[in-house]
């Protein structure tokens, strides 16, 4: 009798779980954006959250959790319950921070296997931005000045080893320059610092500075990609300027590892309607693995940054 009861109870529990997963979502979903408002993750995250909310039938609420180049927010997402009610809008700093933690001899804020890639939304090369009144008109002007005055030119970023720090260090490596790094808590504060004259330059996603370019406050000298940027077709690549520096700042959706497959499929379907440069789960997983390997080598070349 007890055996029959346990079997029946188990079947009921399984049916209840399946029903709960099938009904997902039944309440609002939190999307952690691991940077302050105003940066690329936030700029992409808000319309994505709105679009996904419409597809899912429940609000997707942004929670900005900045700090440590995105590491604090990503760590929070990695520790969240794997039930689909906490999702993460990550940037390509995801591929860098665990390796940086290891390099610095400190515990990793999160492990790669603690988060599962679901979909990529954007993948844009970062751009080299300076104030409109800066003396540099071209990438060559900027690099040559940096060579003449080692350490004199400073650049802002969203944090050590973040998506705004790494491309500038790649440029330093290939151009033989040395610039002073000033980290902020996110792209938004770094752009404010550039506009206010606290920093001389920065590397960031085109969307982050496009409005300031149109307003005549910021000049973009070059970008870390190949070919033309759709939003800035007249801006040359660093490669065209003679510097073999390449870097893409991508944004993508992650969930805590262990999130039930039916929930993952619902999120995957909703994400498909929200993406600018959509890449589905299998391809995005391969893309992230490749990026992790490449960025690991870059971090080792950068070395310790306290």
The total number of structural domains is 2
CATH homologous superfamily (4th level) name of the largest domain: Bordetella uptake gene, domain 1
Spans of at least 5 consecutive residues whose pLDDT stays below 50 are 1-21
Helix count equals: 10
The structural class is: alpha/beta
Descriptive terms for the model:
306 residues; D-Maltodextrin-Binding Protein, domain 2; 5-stranded mixed beta sheet; 10 strands
Q: Can you characterise this structure?
A:
The chain folds into 2 domains: 29-123 and 249-302, Bordetella uptake gene, domain 1 (D-Maltodextrin-Binding Protein, domain 2, 3-Layer(aba) Sandwich); 125-223, D-Maltodextrin-Binding Protein, domain 2 (3-Layer(aba) Sandwich). It contains 10 helices and 10 strands. The strands form 2 sheets. Strands 2-1-3-10-4 form a 5-stranded mixed β-sheet, with helices on both faces. It has a 5-stranded mixed β-sheet with strand order 7-6-8-5-9. Helix 2 (40-56) packs across helix 9 (261-272) and helix 6 crosses helix 10. The N and C termini lie far apart (65 Å). The radius of gyration is 21 Å and the shape is globular. Strand 1 (29-33), helix 2 (40-56) and strand 2 form a beta-alpha-beta unit. The protein has helices at 2-23, 40-56, 71-79, 97-103, 139-148, 165-175, 187-196, 206-214, 261-272, 281-302; strands spanning 29-33, 60-64, 86-91, 115-125, 127-131, 154-157, 180-183, 201-204, 218-223, 248-256. By secondary structure, it is an alpha/beta fold.
């Amino acid at each position: 009798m007890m055996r029959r009861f346990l079997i029946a109870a188990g079947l009921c529990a399984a049916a209840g779980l399946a029903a709960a997963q099938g009904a997902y979502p039944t309440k609002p979903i939190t999307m952690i954006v691991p940077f302050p408002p105003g940066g690329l993750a936030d700029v992409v995250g808000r319309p994505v959250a709105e679009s996904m909310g419409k597809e899912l039938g429940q609000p997707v609420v942004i929670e900005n959790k900045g700090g440590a180049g995105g590491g604090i927010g990503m760590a929070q997402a990695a520790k969240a319950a794997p039930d689909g009610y906490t999702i993460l809008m990550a940037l390509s700093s995801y591929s860098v921070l665990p390796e940086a933690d290891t390099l610095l001899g400190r515990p990793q804020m999160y492990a790669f296997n603690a988060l599962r890639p679901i979909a990529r939304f954007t993948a844009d090369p970062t751009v080299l931005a300076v104030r409109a009144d800066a003396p540099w008109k071209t990438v060559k002007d900027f690099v040559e000045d940096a060579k003449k005055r080692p350490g004199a030119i400073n650049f802002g970023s969203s944090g050590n080893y973040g998506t705004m720090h790494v491309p500038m260090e790649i440029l330093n490596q290939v151009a033989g320059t040395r610039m002073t790094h000033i980290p902020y808590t996110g792209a938004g504060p770094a752009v404010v610092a550039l506009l206010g004259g606290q920093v001389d330059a920065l590397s960031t996603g085109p969307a982050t500075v496009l409005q300031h370019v149109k307003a005549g406050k910021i000049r973009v000298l070059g970008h870390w990609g190949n070919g033309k940027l759709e939003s800035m077709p007249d801006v040359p690549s660093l490669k065209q300027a003679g510097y073999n520096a390449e870097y893409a700042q991508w944004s993508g959706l992650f969930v805590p590892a262990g999130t039930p497959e039916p929930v993952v499929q619902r999120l995957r379907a909703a994400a498909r309607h929200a993406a600018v440069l959509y890449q589905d789960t299998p391809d995005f997983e391969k893309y992230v693995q490749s990026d992790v390997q490449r960025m690991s080598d870059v971090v080792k070349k950068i070395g310790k940054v306290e």
